[in-house]
Write a structure and sequence with these properties.
Number of domains: 4
Strand order of the largest sheet: 2-1-6-3-4-5-7
Structural class: alpha+beta
Order of helices and strands: EHEHEEEHHHHEEHHEHHHHEHHHHHHHH
Distance between the termini: 46 Å
Number of helices: 20
Oligomer: single chain
Number of strands: 9
Shape: elongated
Radius of gyration: 30 Å
Strand content: 5-15%
């Protein structure tokens, strides 16, 4: 969605952190009513560039312009932020009133911003100026977070005429700090419900977990925890238990990483030994699959009901396909996953259609083995009928008919209402 309207709904507690950036990216309709931290996590994950207009009950509009996932402009409409910055610096005695008045007059005369004039005058240190702008922006963000419901409008892209701001707010760093602040009085058990969907999955660093984020958002102990435990070999629940930082601090770290989409999750663990062991395992898997028949490649039996073949392929696609987390581990892992998935796809295409499936079974097994298998299915269908398991009996005999459309099987199927 490049242009939409919604409502920011801020509870001011942990529930504002429940929806992660990837959650919202997967279901943009949730942006229509969303906590502000979650919206900003969505923007950070997408490295979004766009303009956001936020209204309050009094009709005041705050304009926020994002560029590449960072806050570039943040000010009340019709009230330039730099006026507030100068006033803040005078109040903090970082700038004299005389210098403020002089810079205001020069700004009018030259058409430059008052902050630029103050900088050129040398009326304060550059650091004091940068800190004052950052304080004002952070204060505005805090004020927006403290408001319960606020309508907003979002338009993708930088508005025409937008001037570059010398101080931007990196949303990754800001949201990390927000999570630490919101959870300072919380226990690990308070945060675990927010991680509920991923507690049983195996986290590992995603492509967004860059050296820059590592250097600015986490301390050395947290970095060690991520390197040692968040490698796809331990479930999220195990990471919470095993971490030397303690359950609460680790939950806080995982919550921030989850909110910002810095972690990806596997449904099965990587082998102990990390990427090298994974690559060795992938080599073995590729060699093994090359020798398997088409049914075995899909992890199904040759007597499996036809309706279950697509589901088996979908499951293998999740494991080896283009979005498989295993591909993010290394270039070699991605290459091997490609080869494995090509063999899986070849198998699916070879057995998905009935005629090709029957021809392949005949070639693979021969008539005698196929007859033995279908007769066994016929007996199993009778046993299911004896137990009054009609749907199961129908499914079993349909699997037999798919292999050999024998009139005896077809007659039994008709008796079952098929």
């Amino acid at each position: 969605m490049s242009e939409f309207r919604g409502v920011l709904v801020n509870a001011g507690d942990l529930t504002d952190l429940a929806a992660s950036g990837p959650d919202l990216a997967a279901d943009p309709s949730r942006l229509l009513r969303v906590p502000m931290p979650a919206f900003l996590a969505w923007a950070a994950c997408r490295k979004a560039t766009g303009a956001m207009a936020i209204s309050d009950a009094s009709g005041t509009v705050t304009d926020m312009i994002l560029k590449d996932g960072a806050v570039q402009v943040l000010e009340r409409r019709g009230h330039p932020m730099f006026k507030d910055v100068i006033a803040d610096m005078v109040a903090e005695k970082e700038l004299t009133q005389q210098a403020a008045d002089q810079s205001a007059a020069m700004a009018v005369a030259t058409g430059k911003s008052q902050v630029q004039v103050v900088y050129e005058m040398g009326a304060c240190t550059p650091k004091a100026l940068v800190d004052a702008i950052r304080r004002r922006k952070n204060g505005t963000l805090d004020a927006l977070l403290a408001t319960g419901e606020q309508p907003y409008a979002w338009v993708e892209g930088t508005p025409p005429g937008t001037k570059s701001d010398p101080v931007v707010i990196d949303l990754n760093t800001w949201l990390f700090s927000l999570v630490r602040h919101r959870t300072r009085m919380s226990y690990g058990l308070d945060m675990e419900p927010l991680l509920g969907d991923v507690l049983g999955k195996y986290p590992m660093k995603g492509p967004r977990f860059t050296p820059l984020i590592l250097g600015t958002c986490v301390n050395e102990r947290e970095k060690k925890t991520i390197d040692d435990l968040v490698d796809g070999t331990n479930a999220t629940r195990e990471v919470l238990t095993m971490s030397l930082m303690g359950r609460t601090q680790t939950a806080r770290l995982l919550l921030a990483c989850h909110l910002l989409g810095l972690l990806e999750y596997r449904t099965t663990p990587l082998p102990k030994g990390g990427v090298a062991a994974l690559e060795a395992e992938l080599h073995k898997t590729h060699e093994r699959i090359q020798t398997e028949d088409l049914f075995t490649r899909l992890t199904i039996h040759w007597t499996t009901h036809p309706s279950l073949i697509k589901a088996a392929y979908d499951k293998m696609t999740e494991r080896w396909g283009p979005s498989s987390p295993v591909r993010t581990q290394s270039a070699t892992a991605a290459e091997l996953a490609d080869k494995i998935f090509a063999l899986i796809t070849e198998a699916y295409e070879g057995v998905a259609e009935q005629r090709r499936r029957r021809d392949y079974r005949t070639q693979l097994l021969g008539a005698a083995k196929m007859r033995f298998g279908t007769d066994l299915l016929y007996k199993q269908a009778h046993m299911a009928l004896f137990r009054s398991e009609i749907p199961l009996a129908r499914q079993i005999i349909e699997a037999a008919i798919d292999i050999i459309p024998d009139e005896t099987y077809l007659d039994f199927h008709r008796k079952l209402g098929g």
